[in-house]
Amino acid sequence: MIVHPIPPLFGEDSKTLILGSFPSVKSREAAFFYGHPQNRFWAVIAEVLGYDKPKNIEEKKKLILENRLALWDVIASCEIEGSADSTINNVTANDLSIILENSRVDRILVNGKTAEKYYNKYTYPKTGIKAVCLPSTSPANAAWSIERLIEAWKIIIE
């Protein structure tokens, strides 16, 4: 069983929460979201918001918070082999109330189908907030080019 090692990132004025499934091995090692160099999350978010791609954790935090976003993952703990979402078992979901009660979040976006699956199963019944599923920024989602991802992710500025 692996326990999620990264605390949620949000501010009291955060409006949109972006949820992944569970941190990859690289993200767990870096102790921050989307830590794998091949994950396109930071490139996509920066492009959509009109920023340079952040180079370090401080710049990443600033990008999220300045744009009234929040980041976390659906899963609090699970069994997983490496970083493969397909191997996830014995899921315990994160309690989103820490974010929802201490911010202005009224919209939830999920990064990929695995996050959507576990959000709908464990979290939606508690929050009552329907999540919008965006295409995964993971390098495993090779069917989506960076250009297509940027187009789909523009929903965050709507």
Descriptive report:
It is a single chain. This protein has 158 residues and is of the alpha/beta class. It has one domain (2-157): 3-Layer(aba) Sandwich (Uracil-DNA Glycosylase, subunit E). It is 33% helix and 20% strand. It has 6 helices and 7 strands. The chain has helices at residues 25-30, 41-49, 57-66, 97-100, 113-127, 146-153, and strands spanning 2-3, 16-20, 69-73, 75-79, 89-93, 107-111, 131-134. It has a 4-stranded parallel beta sheet. The chain has a 3-stranded antiparallel beta sheet with strand order 1-4-5, covered by helices on one side. α5 (113-127) links the parallel β6 (107-111) and β7. α2 crosses α6. The protein is globular, with a radius of gyration of 14 Å. The N and C termini lie far apart (38 Å). The mean pLDDT is 95.
Structural class: alpha/beta
| Largest sheet, strands/sense/barrel | 4 strands, parallel
- Judging by the overall fold, what is the CATH architecture? 3-Layer(aba) Sandwich
Count the domains: 1
Query: What is the CATH homologous superfamily assignment?
Result: Uracil-DNA glycosylase-like domain
Give keywords.
158 residues, three-stranded antiparallel β-sheet, four-stranded parallel β-sheet, 6 helices, 33% helix, single chain, alpha/beta, Uracil-DNA Glycosylase, subunit E
Task: Give me the secondary-structure topology.
Layout: E1 2-3, E2 16-20, H1 25-30, H2 41-49, H3 57-66, E3 69-73, E4 75-79, E5 89-93, H4 97-100, E6 107-111, H5 113-127, E7 131-134, H6 146-153
Parallel strand pairs: 2-3, 2-6, 6-7
Antiparallel strand pairs: 1-4, 4-5
Helix pairs in contact: 2-6
